[in-house]
User: Fold Heme chaperone HemW from Sphingomonas floccifaciens.
Amino acid sequence: MNDFLPLALYVHWPFCVSKCPYCDFNSHVRDQVDQARWRDALLADLAHEAAVLPGRRLGSIFFGGGTPSLMPPETVAALLSAAEAAWGFTKDIEITLEANPSSVEAARFANLAAAGVNRVSLGLQALDDDALAFLGRAHDVNEGLGALDVAQAVFDRVSFDLIYARPGQSLADWKAELARALAFGTEHLSLYQLTIEPGTRFATLAAKGELTIPDGDTAAELFETTQDMTRAAGLPRYEVSNHARPGAESRHNLTYWRYRDYAGIGPGAHGRRGGMATVRHKKPENWLKTVDRNRHGMQSEDVLDPRDRASEALVMGLRMREGIMVDPSWVDFAAVDRLVGHGLLTRTGDHIATTEAGILLLDSILPTIARDI
Ligand SMILES: C[S@@+](CC[C@H](N)C(=O)[O-])C[C@H]1O[C@@H](n2cnc3c(N)ncnc32)[C@H](O)[C@@H]1O
Ligand code: SF4
Assistant:
């Protein structure tokens, strides 16, 4: 257990202006949101976590979505003061909010910063108008870059997301787009390859043969070029899709990958704290009704046995470039050494890490090396 380490808090805001055709996040479009009711319900869900997790300090808070930049800044401010009163903040607390890069939202950035947000993660997604239209985004490149300018003026720390390996995107196109992105000078970038998620509009199109993403070899080539260019620009990969200037990594996300404690509140939020896995009701209306009834939105709270904890720690740890110290009782070192021989892992004593080739095969590596404990 890691009671002495700072705690992380995740807050889920499930609403979006429209649903993007690739997205399977817990995000919903609603005509009306009763803002006072949502603020009070999130405060109640937070108070529940604070009551079961006393004596911890918060080292990071992450407002994710959905589109948390649609939250009223007063709700963000109310949650931050309740969190500080309940737990206390470390001196250098990181408070991130995910934002869509529209001009309407950019106009609220100053108020969100005044509420205490000190890091923003902006969903630019592409630097090409046709690609943005294909991704079903409400903004074009100009509007997105306008929002990036405001974000860089207002927040201490700025990151943005791009989706690459899009249908028909050539290596030369991606190199030009990434070079432009790196020139904006942010300290952090999240670069995701487009994945077709079950249940999305893109999955329907892909099933009908109307949408094809690059094959494995092309995707690998795009990934390797991404690594070369980001490394040369001083923003090496520190996780599968995340790049940062050393020291500017997302502390909140490192908490997940280093398998340390985090509390999760709001619809569908997951938590891992005190050896328990917590899950909130996913559908916004069900979560709200549960909070009305119980003063928290919990759907399930399960004790994780050592085997679950070990495999979760492996899955998370091997996503990071820094790798993971493993316990010989839950890892099969003979299997690890075979994968070292194939150039997929590195090992020094009890420390293992994935190579770039290994990252591309991460899902197939893990079952091979975890012992049956
Ligand atoms: C919760 S979403 C971002 C929040 C914000 N609403 C937005 O769209 O900008 C987190 C990020 O995951 C990425 N993402 C979501 N679905 C994806 C998919 N199917 N393939 C690749 N990246 C995806 C996008 O880059 C997105 O910005
Ligand atoms: S990508 Fe962002 S804006 Fe689009 S539906 Fe998903 S959470 Fe909402």
Summary: The chain has a mean pLDDT of 95. Residues 306-373 form one domain. The first helix runs from residue 35 to 52.
